[in-house]
Known about the structure:
The protein is mainly alpha-helical. The protein is about 75% helix and about 0% strand. The model has no long low-confidence stretch (mean pLDDT about 90).
Amino acid sequence: xxxxxxxxxxxxxxxxxxxxxxxxxxxxxxxxxxxxxxxxxxxxxxxxxxxxxxxxxxxxxxxxxxxxxxxxxxxxxxxxxxxxxxxxxxxxxxxxxxxxxxxxxxxx
Length: 108
């Protein structure tokens, strides 16, 4: 995913992220949240805002009981990207919710 993103192939990065989420067992909350967060971030980078909000929201909800600076940071990056890409009310509402959610780690 990261290599494809670095090379500018966002479609490949999105597909790799989607496959990573599908491959991880949801019972492993930390891994599932990490892959969801990465998927949400790459969707936000690609401008797929609705899907990015959906996936990032799932990642935020999966952080309950998971203490991981890496996951919180990845979620924070996705939320920050969303905040910069669109000032519409739906995205603004999501960003406000995400930044207020405990442990989401999104920055201001």
